[in-house]
Design brief:
349 residues; alpha/beta; 7-stranded mixed beta sheet; 6-stranded parallel beta sheet
Length: 349
Amino acid sequence: MKAGVVHAREDIRFEDIEKPKAAPGKVVVKVKYTGICGSDVPRVNGDACHYYPNVLGHEFSGVVDEVGEGVTSLKKGDRVAGIPLVPCMKCDDCQKGNYSLCKHYSFIGSREYGSFAEYVSVPEKNAVRFDDSVSFEKGALFEPATVALHGLRRVDYKGGKNVAILGGGTIGMLTAQWAKIFGAKSVTVFDILDERLDLAKRLGADYAVNSGKPDFMNEVDEITNGKGFDYVYETAGNTITMKMAFKLAANKAGVCFIGTPTRELSFTVDEWEALNRKEFNLTGSWMSYSAPFPGDEWELTAHYFGTGELKYDDSFIFKKIPLKDIAKAFEMFKTPGTVKGKILIDSEQ
């Protein structure tokens, strides 16, 4: 089969490798689309790849092509989304159902060969079926959608409250939608790009605030009657928005950092005092799994994409690029600001 194989830093090649077989307990998926995740970029353009040669790709959709011995829940022809984490199932964290915290895990698309290929082999539990009405483009967004839902639940989320989403990227838009699905009184998305704010409104956000404007806090006071937000979700991993969360949180708020930071971060005395005085709870979120594995984050994503309540917008996708041109896709990430949305790698082109 053909695959995009990473051989060294800035060296990903479209070449022939052996097609995987359907081992016992596993299925082989004929890949349709794979999203390029932010974590893939430093593995190709930097030194973060675990080993060479390697086949990355973990946000994928496709069709079950072969079924291994003992597999009962899937059959050839099923439309599926990939579930990349392969926990050990033996450590204390796994025994408690905290699979994201497993220290002995494998991961499809980084620690073992992934979906930047025509076919990928995964354990039976690492593929979730979705309905024929759900497009393969949506299927490739299951993994970020589950990340968003897991983050929503990392605080004691309840409906009927005011919610702030900091960052209007893919994760932010999905987190905003989950907040609405589960009964938010209002959802406000913050970003500095008007096109992202327009998209947020199209996807159901009640308010969209340009936080690059000097007087944006006046809008916050109007929305929340000067009380701040009951829940604040930071999804960009940006120093500015992470610090902004301290300002936007209401008394006794729940604040979750979903975005992955890329720079050192420090807080002023006043910012930390805000945490003390408001007594808000600050936590983080990592991946998208719960018990029983892989968790209802995945079942609910399949359900709500199927009903249409979890909305997909064409502007989520920046470009669809054939697998043979995968090196060109990663070249785009070398120029900041070039990639505006998700790049999908099409393994059938």
